[in-house]
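Priority: low. Protein: Flagellar hook-basal body complex protein FliE. Input follows.
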Amino acid sequence: MSSIVQVQQDMLDRMNRYADLASGPAVRPAAQLSGNAPAQGIGASFEQALRSVDAEQHKSSAAMAAVDSGQSEDLVGAMIQSQKASVSFSALLQVRNKLTGAFDEIIRMPL
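Result:
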């Protein structure tokens, strides 16, 4: 049960960081966004999030397949893994929807 809470807390922390970045000045140099690390950009961040959600989905599928085939008796663990994957995917969709909405708003701005 604590792993679900941990995943939810991680996603909440990410969403808060993105909200803090979005509420700052309109234009910031890329070096300030990432501190001392090299600038990655939003595309790299979204790709990293997408890959981590994909990894969660694969873990969930493997756990469910192991339970289905009788190789594992850990039904509870498989269900928890499935819920973690579901929460991760839902959070990713929410971020995608927010980014799409922001992009649409920028497109509609008058010049």
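Residues 39-110 form one domain. DSSP finds four helices and no strands in the chain.
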